[in-house]
Amino acid sequence: MKLRIVFLGTPDFAVPSLEALIGSRHDVVAVVSQPDRPKGRGQQLQATPTKAAADARGISVLQPAKIREEAFLQAIRDLRPDLGVVVAFGRILPDALLAIPRLGMINVHASILPRYRGAAPIQRAVLAGDTETGVSIMRVVTELDAGPVFSIARVGIPADATSGEMAGVLASLGAAELVPIVDALADGRAVETPQDHALATLAPKIAKDEGIIDWLETAARVHDKVRGLQPWPLASTTLNGERLVVRRTRATALDAHDAAASTIVRAHGDDLTVACGGGTALQILQIQPEGRRTVSAREFLAGRGSLEGARLGT
After folding, report:
1. With contact defined as beta carbons under 8 Å apart, do 220 and 129 qualify?
2. Whose CA is closest to 228, among 90, 120, 119, 145?
3. Domain-ending residue, one of 199, 222, 253
4. What DSSP assignment string belongs to 233-276?
């Protein structure tokens, strides 16, 4: 059976799943995206990634300011959808909307549920130093990310991978997992497994102030912060009042174990190393002075004089 699908999604992460559905045997009858937002220095309106993908294929796009309004709900009813597919839409869906598709709604969620329910599962996994993550295809219910799961696909998190890099991996993985589940729903053979709610953990939205580096943490924790907060809000520190965005790091050996955390213990050639908590040290490989481009440690150190003994976060 061919299903009529309404797709709800907004960012780049949602595009591979949308394209997979468009290439399937099913009909994507409309795409629902958040409204376009002003971007860049000129603050000009820019189409959301899913809107751009839908427009390129002649698919109708709805961008309601409020998804609880009756006019929007009626527009969805008029489409007579069999199924709703949600991928990073960015809003909580009301029960009135969930009830419209004949087969309900399913969601592509970027974690191994019930771990990391919420808005930032990819970032929270990287921030925690997890070595594995994945994608869960689940039924959308009223409680956040608590619905029964149709499938889970797992993938490793490399030690130096950023959240942005993992988002690309998981977007592709989710798209590959999605269509077989939609086919199974269409054919009446999909199997749903309830989550163990006692094991649930939350992945709240990232706040901008989480990017401030606490050098009292271990080098491994700071390294995970640097990875986890890319591409936003980025991990940063200060040196003599200048904000520095730390872009790439590596945990390394600390020669002087009694050096106070935040102290620059090596600053020559390619080596810019900072003492962290617990007798650990972090080598900064790439750094970005505020308002300037990202540079290597060697480029950063050139012309700055001796920085050994200086304290970051000041």
Report:
1. yes
2. 120
3. 199
4. T-EEEEETTEEEEEEEEEEE--S-TTPPTTBEEEEETTEEEEE-
Residue 289: other Cβ atoms inside 10 A: 14
Last residue of a domain, one of 199, 221, 242: 199
pLDDT average, residue stretch 40-45: 77
More confident residue, 257 or 46: 46
- Confidence at residue 45, expressed as pLDDT on a 0 to 100 scale: 87
pLDDT in tens, 178-205: 999 999 999 999 999 999 999 999 999 9
- 176 in the same domain as 46: yes
For residue 207, CA distances in Å to 144, 166, 210, 211, 314 come to 19, 19, 6, 8, 22
pLDDT digits (tens, 9 = 90+) for 103-138: 999 999 999 999 999 999 999 999 999 999 999 999
Co-location of 26 and 142 in the same domain: yes
- Could you tell me if residue 21 is inside a domain? yes
- Structural domain of 286: 208-301
- Within the chain, where are the H helices? 15-22, 49-56, 70-78, 95-98, 121-127, 163-187, 219-228, 297-301
Going by their DSSP bridges, the two strands 27-32 and 61-62 should be labelled as parallel
Q: Are residues 172 and 32 in the same domain?
A: yes
Tokens of 202: 């939350």
| The token pair that represents 2 in the structure block | 């061919």
Q: Are residues 255 and 195 in the same domain?
A: no
* C-alpha separations of 81 from 29, 98, 101, 241 in Å: 8, 11, 5, 56
pLDDT above 70 for 256: no
